[in-house]
Amino acid sequence: MKNKSKFLLLVVVSIILLSFTAAHRHKIQVLFKKEKTVFQQLTTNGIPNLKECYILRGEILGVRQNVAHFSLKDIDDNHKKAFYINAYNLAVLAELNEYYPIQSIEDAPDFFKSKDFMVAKKHYNLQSLRNYIIDSFHDPRIHFALYLGGISSPTIPSNAFYHEQINETLNKITTRFINDLTRVKIKTRSKMVLLPEFMLWNKENFNVKDDQAFLAYINTYRSKEKQIPKDYTIGYYPYSWKLN
């Protein structure tokens, strides 16, 4: 009888824990849907509409309050990765509101460091949150998911990130960026490929030892017909902080 009672107790506890986990995962799905709505309302082709961001700043604030106090206990890495990427991009939109109207990120002193805010019950500024995301997940594709502000920045995916498609979405946006000739500029005559400067700033995060390895990484996301020849050199063009 004692063994049977222990077994039944374990079953009951397991059911309660599974129910709690399922409910918690449902909450994060609801949050992702709210973030998707905000990104769709406030961006066009991944570029923030600063006037709309300012007009609808109350909606941004409401979602950020959910992000601030959200618990990530018992949440898997794919959920966490999606959560933090969405949280960061949402925080950038909120920070742009603080300085609206501005023409360039350079017009906002310490844009990435000036304001502290909460994400999942911990304090960050934009720079420390970005560093946390990069250092926690060790996924170079994330660089193409985080909006830095300015024309040279990767855009904000309008559908937000969901855990189910996180890898598919990261592959998609990385492929799109690397195959965009306005982003990765191929100079056939000089046998050179020009990359945006933010890729130079974060080169160590791409796990490449030299330019040839960097070129190999880039070719991973290009079709066989669009492979950049191995004898091409890599250069970088200046980052534009001007807002669209």
Question: Can you put this structure into words, describing what you see?
Answer:
The protein is mainly alpha-helical and 244 residues long. The chain folds into two domains: 2-178, no CATH class; 185-237, no CATH class. The protein is 50% helix and 9% strand. The protein has eight helices and seven strands. The protein has helices spanning 2-42, 50-55, 57-68, 77-98, 126-137, 166-178, 197-201, 211-220, and strands at residues 43-44, 47-48, 117-119, 122-124, 185-187, 192-196, 233-237. Strands 5-6-7 form a three-stranded mixed β-sheet. Strands 1-2 form a two-stranded antiparallel ribbon. A two-stranded antiparallel sheet has the order 3-4. Strand 5 and strand 6 (192-196) form a beta hairpin. The N and C termini lie far apart (72 Å). Mean pLDDT is 88; it is low at 11-20.
Q: What general form does the structure show?
A: globular
Q: What structural category do the secondary elements indicate?
A: mainly alpha
Q: What oligomeric state is this?
A: single chain
N-to-C CA distance? 72 Å
Report the average pLDDT across residues: 88
Order of helices and strands: HEEHHHEEHHEEHHE
Largest sheet: 3 strands, mixed
Radius of gyration: 21 Å
The proportion of strand residues reads: 5-15%
**Treating each run of at least 4 consecutive H or I residues as one helix, how many helices?**
8
